[in-house]
Amino acid sequence: MKGTLKTDMLASKHLLFALILVPLVLLLCLWVGASGFGLPDLTTLTGQALLELRLCRLFTGFVVGAALSLSGCALQAVLRNALAEPSVLGLSGGGSLGAAIVIAAGLQAVSPFLVPSGAFLGASATLLLVCFLAKRVGNYAPTTLILIGVVVSSMLSSLLMLLLSFVKLRVIHSITWWLLGNLQVTSWTLLGVVALFVLCAGVVLFCEARTLNALLLGHEGAHHLGVNTRWEIPLILFAATLATAAAVAVSGIIGFVGLIVPHAVRRLVGASHRILLPCAALFGGTFLVVCDTLARSVIESHEIPVGVVTSLLGGPFFLFLLIQNGKRRV
Amino acid sequence: MIVLRQVSAYYRSEKVLDDLSLAIACGERVAVVGPNGAGKTSLLRVLTGLLPAHGTIHLQGRELNALSPRERASLISVVPQEIISDIPYVAQDFVLLGRTALLPRLGRPSPEDLSAVQEAMRLTETWDLRKRLLPEMSGGERQRLALAMALASQPKILLLDEPTSHLDLRHRAEMMRLLLKLSTEQRITLLMVVHDLTLASQYFERILLLSGGRTVADGTVAEVMTSALLETAFNCPVRVDTLPGISAVCALARL
Amino acid sequence: MIQRIFIGILLFLAGCARQEAPASALRLVSTAPHLTEALCAIGAGDLLVGRTDACDYPTERLQKIPAVGGFGTPSLESLLEQRPTHLVETILAKPDIKSTLEPVGISVVHVPIRLLADIPPALRQLGELTGHTREATRLAETIQRGIREAQGKQSLSKTAPRVFLLLTPDTPMTLGKSTFVSELLELAGGVNVGRESLADYYHVSLEWLLEKDPDLILCLYETYGQDPCHLLKEQIGWKALSAVRHQRVYTLPDLNSACRPGPRVLEGLGQFKTVLARDAQEAQRAGIKADERNLKD
After folding, report:
1. CA A116 → CA A126, A130, A217, A275, distances in Å?
2. Distance between CA atoms of C263 and C185, rounded to whole angstroms?
3. C-alpha pair distances (Å), B173 with each of A34, B116, B132, B141, B162
């Protein structure tokens, strides 16, 4: 029997690729600005402030992109659904409602931490609700979770619309702008807290990578392989929610990243989560930074919401994936 | 190896296993047959801990409830019926999944893990497929791979639920040949749920006939595969033709 | 057709549910806060039978008048309950409500007020409608005089501070050139840095704002008594703006009179002038020379 078994290893070429390319791309994005290509003049106060702004945005974009991608990978594995993404369990809906309530109460002006906290609590509360309902139904089976998620999501949307129907025009505008997604965070403290949450979630998910792999065979199949599904599945859901809630709290709703990045990276590095998770985080973070660089540089003085750019890029890519899949079946 | 004593199990307030007692020795091959709803799949689920049961269940002398999930998984393996084929998993990584219970959570697979995977693929004749992706394989290749995955943890007991139902004649025969080889060479206890009674008679010496959650008959092919027993269990006229090494069983249509 | 039957039934029921009102002239419903203020200012407040829920001035009088919907979004049922004769609007979310109301005898009167120049003619129009022409003309003339005076002073002033009008607390949203507030600001002697855009209100990036580096920032949102500069000083990007560093961040005491194109426009203008004057004083005290300010333009 010829040949040796090399398995479950991060191919060195992928790692090299990532370690060289990612910082390069990030650095490139730092150079791009609305006023063209080039770093701002660092001798002036304005120039230093501009650099700080760009760095902050870069960092935010990377953390949020990584968070959404990690969450997407985990949810696609647990829910055994290729279309699963962070918003499928209603987490985005809950985050939106939480943020909207804080904005409607006029508390935006009081502290920059309030809206993110509202969003975070909203998203977390939604997961608790979904899990509670799933337990009542009897199990954490993927279909159950997805159905409950869809129901909860639409209920939350209705509540959001109810709220919007009562508030002043200016508040509606504020809420809508928040919902469109925005990576301009203005507090390093907030960003630090978010990065910490995302890191914790990432670590937990990486520790659960083998379980995520085993979930390929379904919850029962994973059970047969020795996974203790009773607490490992809720743990994975909790970690995915932590990452999503932190991302939503700081940046609003940014779609497509959590859906597309896992698929794209799977095609590049394979489906084993021990490789998929770190690569998805790196790729997702970089992708979002690139999208955001486009969003803030294309039109001077106007800001395109980054969610628009991710959808414009992500949508066609998703269609491309579907067509490829269809071809393969035939 | 496997001992069940007065085991009862419920699924949503319905009694699926009723006071079942059973003893299977090491290396035995047992086919579990019976009508739908007889409790065949429930029996398998009870053995893997998916279905909570009253009564005592011992695996290799140890009580099932006392085993941690990882210990249980390294003792008993279940061959999955169907594998999702659209995720681009590499075959060798897929077989490695079978060793989840033994792999370190964070660390790399050890040389023993790798050699177990290698051995499992050798036994199932899937070594040449190791670098291929799941979606690119045929049904038969995927089924052999599923078996390899189950064997990767070097289990003492192998449970199968209708593993051959999607396979054509040739692949069915290949699968059964492999299973036979495994049980004799590796001394693995085999417990398989089968609908095809003829197939059961061909490859298994011991047949367990269940009905209504109870054991109707438990013995050799000659003892269990009689038209009288089968007719009572399946509630339809049955004809059994005994040939050397096989009992052809077919149900007669009511006129 | 079905709509007409429906309206007819509603009217009938409304009529049955209430006593007959004294046969009179006009019963007006306003669909905008500045129209409500205008009507009250010209003395036609007792003709009002319906207002929006955003109307809040003059407070005591409005308490007696029920709200029949939001800005530009009157609720048909509550509207009809008041049995108005005219609906006064400046903009309607659903313009086809006209075709529903006119057949049942409610005339929809369009009073366009968006910019400064629209206010006097609008007041005169309302004066004609309500028969309070004398008061309306008087008020319109006062306003026109005030505007002319301010325009005169504007051309005399040499230095005009560059102001950033901040609409929302968390993200830099500002007003374009052709908005009422921008006009008031420029009339009061300031320059709106956001004037390049034709849009009414739009988002700008912080980078753009940093490059423009306005002299002062005027916050046009409710700050609940808190000093907005305090929050801005902590935020990345904002804290590097010279306006924030020199603490030239201001709010207006009464946002409504400053941002609503209505009869209190001169009060609003006064607020802007007060803020700019205060800023000029403090800037002088802080020693920022006028030349420095001019150089930035």
Report:
1. 15, 21, 37, 31
2. 17
3. 68, 25, 24, 13, 14
Residue A108 with chain C: CB contacts under 8 Å:
168-170
> Hey, of A29, A184, A306, which one would you mutate to test binding to chain C, going by the most C CBs within 10 A of its CB?
A184
- Rounded CA-CA distance A263/B87 in Å is 10
Q: Which pLDDT score, from 0 to 100, does residue A7 have?
A: 53
Counted residue by residue, chain C has a size of 297
| Model pLDDT, residue C92 | 85
Residue type, A80: R
Give the pLDDT band of residue B253 (cuts 50, 70, 90). low
Please compute the mean of the pLDDT values over residues A31-59 and round it to a whole number.
79
Which residue on chain A is closest to B83 by alpha carbon?
A217
Mean pLDDT of A318-324: 77
Question: What does the pLDDT average to over C20-28?
Answer: 62
- Please name the residues in contact with A327: beta carbons below 8 A apart, sequence gap of 6 or more: none
A177 vs B: CB within 8 A: no
Q: Is B78 on the interface with A (CB under 8 A)?
A: yes
pLDDT tens sequence across B21-55: 999 998 899 999 998 888 898 999 999 988 888 88
What confidence tens digit (pLDDT) does each residue in B69-83 have?
999 999 999 998 777
**For chain C, where are the E strands, in sequence order?**
28-30, 48-50, 69-70, 73-74, 86-89, 107-110, 162-166, 173-175, 191-192, 201-203, 216-219, 249-251
Tell me if C235 and A112 make a contact (CB, 8 A cut-off). Answer: yes
Predicted confidence band of residue A77 (pLDDT cuts 50, 70, 90): very high
pLDDT in tens, C160-209: 899 999 988 878 889 988 888 999 998 888 899 988 888 888 888 888 88
C218 to chain A nearest CA, in Å? 14
For residue A324, give the nearest of A269, A245, A263 by alpha carbon. Answer: A263
Structure letter (DSSP) for residue A158:
H
How long, in residues, is chain A?
Answer: 330
Query: Is 80 exceeded by the pLDDT of residue A134?
Result: yes
- With CA atoms as reference, report the closest residue to B224 among B203, B210, B243: B210
In sign, the C-alpha dihedral spanning B121, B125, B126, B129 is: positive
**Predicted pLDDT at C144:** 92
- Asked if A7 and B48 come within 8 Å (Cβ–Cβ), the reply is no
Q: Tell me the pLDDT of chain B averaged across its residues.
A: 87
Q: What's the start-to-end Cα distance of chain C, in Å?
A: 62
Q: C139 — phi, psi (to 5°)?
A: -65, -45
Question: Residue C197, exposed/middle/buried by CB under 10 A (0-12, 13-18, 19+)?
Answer: middle
Q: What is the pLDDT of residue A36?
A: 65
Confidence of residue A5 (pLDDT cuts 50, 70, 90): low
Closest-CA distance, C223 to chain A, in angstroms, reads 6
> Rounded to two decimals, what is the model's pTM?
0.84
- CA of C247 vs chain A CAs: smallest distance (Å): 16
Contact residues, chain A, for B130 at CB < 8 Å: 3, 5
Nearest to A53 among C170, C173, C237 (CB): C237
Interface test with A, best of B12, B87, B125, B134 (most A CBs within 10 A): B87
- Which residues, numbered 73 to 92 in chain A, qualify as contacts with chain B under a Cβ-Cβ cut-off of 8 Å? 80, 82
Tell if the CB–CB gap between A227 and B78 is shorter than 8 Å.
no
Per residue in C264-296, pLDDT (tens digit) is 999 999 999 999 999 988 888 877 554 454 444
Query: Is-cis flag, bond preceding C58, omega within 30?
Result: yes
What gap in Å lies between CA A77 and CA A79, rounded to an integer?
Answer: 6
**CB neighbour class for C12 (10 Å; exposed up to 12, middle 13-18, buried from 19):** exposed
List Cα–Cα distances, C2 to A57, B247, C6, C9, C95, in angstroms: 56, 78, 6, 11, 19
What does the angle CA C236 – CA A174 – CA C230 come to, to the nearest 5 degrees? 35
